[in-house]
Amino acid sequence: QTTWLGKIAEQGLIVAYGVTEPAVGSDVANIRTKAKPITGDDGTVVAYAIEGTKQFITNGGVAQIYTILARAPGGPSFFVVERDAPGLSVGPDENKHGIRASNTTQVILDDVQVPADQLLGLEEGKGLAQANAVFGFTRLMVAAFGLGAGEEALERAVRYGEERLQFGAPLNRKQGFTHKLLVPHAVRLEAARAYCEAVAARLDSGEPGLQVEGSVAKLFATEAGNAAADASIQAHGGYGYTHEYEVEKIRRDVRITTIYEGTSEIQQGIIGTNRWRGTVKSKGGFYRDMAASLRKLETDNGSAEVAALAAEALAGTFLACHSKKLLRQQIVLFELGRLAAEVETAVALVTKLATGELPTGEKVDSELLEPCARLHAGAAARDVATTGLHLMMSSGAFDDDQLAAYREAIGFDALLSSSNGELALMDRLTEVMVKRL
Cα separation of 252 and 120, whole Å? Predict the structure, then answer.
């Protein structure tokens, strides 16, 4: 760390992270780039010869230092490779859909020899663990990219809706515009922000092992950002499709956030697998404890109780699916991973509202958060109820009595009734957003 981080900081060097390969994306364990040991006269390893190609490397064409994941005899390992190393070359810039100002190239390593002390950790086989150790940080970072893009797109849509007159009134006075293209995205972006803030505070406190939380943040925030940007184009009509209004650029740029640093599908698999194991191991306690904590919070709009019902229902859904071995079906695992993100972001948003302040001590915007928390908690509750029932019915593994028992156990009717009064909440949220222009 002293050698390389000191050099990077003192000289302002650009670093590129080389993991992805032409035939290997998320399946990192099967990388094909090889690091062959070179031994000295006494038989000790003095260097490694690296051979392979890395694909879609950010800063690939401008970096002075590369961290390259290669397969050594002891397993996947990271090596520090400097730009002027003989045998290292880069491909042409990728002609990308978005983030076009970001340099992205292949990095080609043709018998690139690096000293043995440039093996990170000085021990072979640590590469996958090293990569996994930073996912809580890096995936939260990408989540913030998605969140910021979505918020900018939404703000532009709200502003346009106030300026654009149709049928004698601004678009912001029409529910078909606000309640479809603005409100749902404002709610999900606030939920994403609350969750990202909570995870960031935990990371700042030094808490380890937040890789799953990083996945939740990335999945939810980047999907929310993409949806908000897409809705902003629609909100602008034909103008949204032109370069002048910039929302089409935001949409192109934010699209990558659901792909790099692990696709949304990879995140769903990670979340589903880990939350399934945690829920089964705790006999439902993982989410039921969340529900108990929520019921200790003070909120005036019932959002804590609705989020608690959603968390309890998710525990029951995981356990019911486990009882019939449904999680062997990948799509079931993915859907439960998605539901976990919905519920956990609802918990974060309700908690933020009830706490009343950010980790920095800054007061929260209760006028904005109150309708958002209630709407998102209700949406999560209904999603758990309907998706859970759909998964069980589609599996064919549950008879009518078992399905009826599941509905009763999770409080199906109570979950659906969480929609009571939501139109008025959407009206209020619209007023708040317009007032803040």
Answer: 35
Residue ranges in 255-411 assigned as alpha helix (H): 264-281, 285-294, 303-323, 330-355, 366-395, 400-410
Cβ neighbors of 27 (< 8 A, separation 6 or more) are none
Residue type at 320? A
pLDDT given for residue 140 in this prediction: 97
The catalytic position among 124, 151, 223, 261 is 261
Q: pLDDT digits over 177-216, tens only? A: 999 999 999 999 999 999 999 999 999 999 998 999 999 9
Q: Which residues contact 16 (CB under 8 A, 6 or more apart)?
A: 57, 58, 59, 60, 63, 65, 66, 67, 107
Q: Which domains does the chain have, with CATH numbers?
A: 2-130 (2.40.110.10), 134-258 (1.20.140.10), 264-360+375-435 (no CATH)
Tell me the pLDDT tens digit for each residue of 127-150: 999 988 888 899 999 999 999 999
SS3 of residue 13 by DSSP: coil
pLDDT of residue 28: 87
Query: Is-contact 271 210, C-beta < 8 A?
Result: no
261 is catalytic: yes
Q: Which residues pair with 18 in a beta bridge?
A: 68
